[in-house]
From TrEMBL:
Annotated positions binding biotin: S94, T95, N96, Q118, K191
Name under which the protein is recorded: Bifunctional ligase/repressor BirA
Keyword terms, alphabetized: ATP-binding, Biotin, DNA-binding, Ligase, Nucleotide-binding, Repressor, Transcription, Transcription regulation
Purpose: Acts both as a biotin--[acetyl-CoA-carboxylase] ligase and a repressor.
Gene3D superfamilies, A to Z: Bira Bifunctional Protein, Domain 2 (3.30.930.10), Winged helix-like DNA-binding domain superfamily/Winged helix DNA-binding domain (1.10.10.10)
DNA-binding interval(s): 23-42
Ranges of residues in domain BPL/LPL catalytic: 71-266
Length: 327
């Protein structure tokens, strides 16, 4: 078995969640001493894994364990396991801040920063992003565009991420999702995921050096509910106080789908458009701090919004914040 003792132990316990495995068996299977097993279990417990130990039975990972773990994510990945390198934290200000810092120092594509909680999570237009402990996914994925020598528009990256989230939620939960241009994911008209892509341009070649895709998903219902400012517009994927362990599975699927779109050039335009609920709607959009009423005619192949303004002018918009109102 490859990997370190801790990774291997959690992987075995995770595959046998709720069952006891003796220290002797773990030691034999991993070809290490029982003391090494004991030490690794102790360290895993300190990291927050809920492992029960019984003298004559061994160790068992609690069925209720719902912790984000790189091993559990990898165990759930059918492909691209070796493409990702995870940095998982309990509490951070913002995973995007950490990822940007790493990216500016040349971190590889596929470096993924995840936290159980963010104290200063942020979204577009300077808004804060509600990131309570243990119920959501707060994840930032680094794309090192300079090293990959790929030239991509930020709209492609950000829509690929929205599509990856939308598709993964549907694959895992059987719930229908919609995308609000450009990258908010909705279930039943309520927002369950927001995405903020940040990048750095290089002055010399005027191309994106790196991009950080920050994905925030409300997975399980927050223990204290949503703050009143977003209570009417936000929801979680699991709308009751459920604690099922879907976060690791969801992360695994999102990364696989994103890799397909980004590196394997699998087209996602048609599926994106099918899920977009703004086409044919009359909405208000804020462009350069000015509210405009538009009819959304289409989303073109570059993911620009084809908009008809009130004076009859038709324009293709690549940015702007939509105030979604059905009329
Ligand atoms: C939005 O809805 O405007 C975008 C929200 C993006 C939130 C994610 S959570 C992970 C990453 N870290 C942050 O501080 N923001 C993004």
């Amino acid at each position: 078995m490859k990997g370190n003792v801790k990774e291997n132990i959690i992987s075995i316990l995770e595959s046998n969640k709720g069952l006891f495995i003796s220290g002797e068996k773990l030691a034999d299977d991993l070809n290490v001493s029982r003391a090494a097993v004991w030490k690794a279990v102790k360290s895993l417990k300190n990291e927050g894994y809920n492992i029960n130990s019984l003298q004559n039975k061994g160790y068992s990972l609690s069925k209720e364990t719902d912790i984000i773990s790189s091993n559990i994510i990898k165990n759930n990945m059918l492909k691209y396991k070796d493409k990702f390198n995870f940095l998982i934290y309990n509490t951070v200000k913002s995973t995007n801040i950490i990822a940007r810092e790493l990216a500016s120092k040349g971190a590889e594509s596929g470096t993924v920063v995840i936290a159980e909680e963010q104290t200063e999570g942020y979204g577009r237009n300077g808004k804060s992003f509600f990131s309570p402990y243990g119920t959501g996914i707060y994840m930032s994925i680094i794309l090192n565009l300079k090293k990959e020598k790929k030239i991509f528009k930020s709209s492609f990256i950000t829509t690929a991420a929205a599509m990856a989230v939308s598709k993964s939620i549907e694959e895992i939960t059987n719930k229908n999702t919609h995308i609000k241009w450009i990258n908010d994911v909705f279930i039943n008209n309520k927002k369950v995921c927001g995405i903020l892509t940040e990048g750095a341009f290089s002055f010399e070649d005027r191309k994106l050096d790196y991009a950080v895709i920050g994905i925030g998903i409300n997975v399980n219902f927050p223990k204290k509910g949503f703050p009143k400012e977003i209570n009417d517009t936000a929801d979680s994927i699991n709308s009751n106080d459920s604690n099922s362990d879907i976060r690791n599975i969801l992360i695994a699927r999102i990364l696989e789908n994103l890799w397909d779109y980004y590196f394997n050039n699998i087209s996602f335009y048609d599926e994106y458009k099918k899920r977009s609920f703004l086409i044919g709607k009359r909405v208000s959009i804020n462009i350069d701090n000015k509210e405009n009423i538009i009819n959304v005619l289409d989303i073109d192949e570059n993911f620009a919004l084809v908009a008809e303004f009130e004076d009859g002018r038709i324009d293709k918009l690549t940015s702007g914040s939509i105030n979604y109102k059905i009329s």
